[in-house]
Every structure is written in structure tokens, then in C-alpha cells.
Here is the input.
Amino acid sequence: MNILGIETSCDETAAAVVRDGSEVVSNVVYTQIPLHTPYGGVVPEIASRAHIEKISEVVNAALDAFRAAEPGGRIDAVAVTYGPGLSPALIVGLNAAKGLALSLGVPLVGINHIEAHLHTPFLYDRGTPPPETGFADFDASLAPALGLAVSGGHTNWFAMPSYGEYHTLGQTLDDAAGEAFDKAAKLLGLGYPGGPKIDKIAREYLEANPSPDLIPFPKGRPREGVSALSGLPADMCVSFSGLKTALLRYVQQNPSLDVPRVVASYQEAIVGAVADRTRTALRRARCRSLIVGGGVSLNSRLRAALQEVAAKERVRLLVAKPKYCGDNGAMIAGLAYCRRNVAGDAALALDVAPSLEAG
Ligand code: KG4
Ligand code: ZN
Here is the structure.
């Protein structure tokens, strides 16, 4: 089954064709990063306009590459992100997907963006070997799993007792990890998006200083009993607003700033917080595996820290290939294959859900 997946929830216009949920036949991502860079963050109106300008080109490129790879092949369904994300951005992808599904006479599948990030470790490129364990083996060899979605918009931990089931164990109470990276980079004048820039500067600093004298920034632990926890345990949640304030105060108090040391210390606070909650969740939910997705899973320190946690807790770690960590259409098409809620005409009534939660 070949599914066309469309993604426009934030600042990437993306489309891909995926066969049977994991073999990526074509994958096209147009990133709007240069358009948002002058503003130091994503501007919804600019994102929406750029999606409108690019959506046809991106979808056609994905379909052309699919037809070139598989002459005579047909698209069996169209999948699209309907939430969470920026409303004016989501609408562009959803409307394009509806039009395509109608014209091709195939079902439309609405996909949750966070859940799709957790499908990315199962994606592989056509002509390359598939991952050792596919999603079809999930229940037999990976469940119960811990799902960690860590991106610019989300930092969530889910218990996944079987494939497609997500129960929230913990989350950020304010900024997502990626947002915390981006805001720090903006404050330090490092440019947008901040994650890759901070990763690189910190990596060089840590390579040059094997025993670094890091600044003890707060490790993002929320206070017990705050209402934002919404009943979740404090030791399974993170809060990065205090970290951001601590950085601002440090910058104000230290005019001659050692930027690489500050950046490495700040990254360590985020990585430490995410790794700590992950360890707690793995133990609490007695997981056999750890499934990680989202743009921040590209972070080299976070990858190393999660590898260490997984090894210590004796669980299997599944992380996406770097090209599938950021937003893409392949994760949307891939997860759609696992969905049985492929609807007919009723799907055309599907609306965007900017605050959609997983599960
Ligand atoms: O998954 P993604 O492409 O979009 C969302 O769904 O949010 O994630 C984008 C986020 C940005 O905040 C970006 O700074 C962060 O991922 N990011 C990184 C790295 N590469 C991207 N954060 C830390 N280290 C990186 N190497
Ligand atoms: Zn994302």
C-alpha cells in the first residue's frame, strides 16, 4: 500500500510517499527556516503564506519521484497532519490533502503530528536495509515501550503498551526542549534555529574541555503540587521557564561572557532533565524499549545521554535516522498505514486541531 503523506504544521512544507508504513519511496522537505531567521522564531502568517506558495511544488515533486521509482504505481490513500500545530499552517496541508484525496478517489487519513514523530525510527529509504525491528514486531518485541517526543513544539513521555496506544506519563509544563534551545540562542545572538547551533558550539567546547567546569543551571524540575502538572507526577515533568530566566540573569551579571561554556552548560541542563525523566519513566512503566522522535533527538549530547540511560536500564533504544528527526511527510504517511480509521467522504469534514494531544 502506497500512502502520500503531507505535513505543514509548522515551518516545513513536506510530502512523501511511503510503502507499507516504513519504506520511503520519495521524500521532499522544503524548509522555511531562512524566512523565519530574521525574526528569531516562526511567524505564523509567514509560515502559512510560504506553505501556500510551495505546497503544489512539494507534493508534485514527491509524486514525480514516486512515479519515477515505481512506474505505474498508484497512491492508495492520502494522509495529512491535522494537529497539533499552527492553525493557518495546518489548514494549507489539510486542504491540499482533501483536494488530492478527492481527485485520486482515495481515502483521507488525519494524523497526529506527535504520534507521527514516534513512528520515525521505523522509516527506511527504498534500496537500503529495513530496521532490525519493524513496527509490526512492536507488540511482540518492543512493548511496553516508552515514547519520547522531543521537538520545537513538544516534550512528552508516553507509555506505549501496544502499537498506536499512547498514555501520557509526563510532559513539559511550559517550553518544549527545542523552544528552550531556540530562545537561548536568540538571547545569545546565535541565530535561528538555536538547537543545531548550540549543539555544535557545545560539542566543540566539550571536545576541547574533557573535564568542563559547567555552570550549574537549574535542571528543569517543577515544584510539587503546581496546578500546571494537571495531576501528572512532578518527577515525570519538566519546566524550562526557570532555566531560561537563570540564563538571562547569568548573561546580565556576566558582561564578559564565555559563550561556549554558557551554551554547553545550558545544553547540559536540558539534556540532564530529559534524560532524568526518561530514566524515571522507563523504570515506572517497566519498559522494554525507548522510542525517540522529534527535531531535538538530533542533539548529539541528548543521543549519547539516552544511549547511556537505555544501556543502564537494559532497554532497546530506537531513534530515527537524522533525516527523519525533523518534520517530514514520511512519518505522516508511515503512521497512516497503521491506522484503521481511514474514512471515506466523512474525512472531508476533517478540521484542523491546533491543540490536539496524543493518545
Ligand atoms: O521536530 P521539529 O523539526 O519541529 C517540531 O515539531 O517542533 O523540531 C524542531 C526543533 C527546533 O527547536 C530546533 O532548534 C530543534 O528541533 N533542533 C535541535 C537540533 N536540531 C534541531 N535541538 C538541539 N540540537 C540539535 N542538533
Ligand atoms: Zn515536529
Observations:
- The pocket of zinc ion (ligand 2) is lined by residues 113, 117, 151, 294, 327 (CB under 6 Å).
- The CA atoms of residues 84 and 355 lie 5 Å apart.
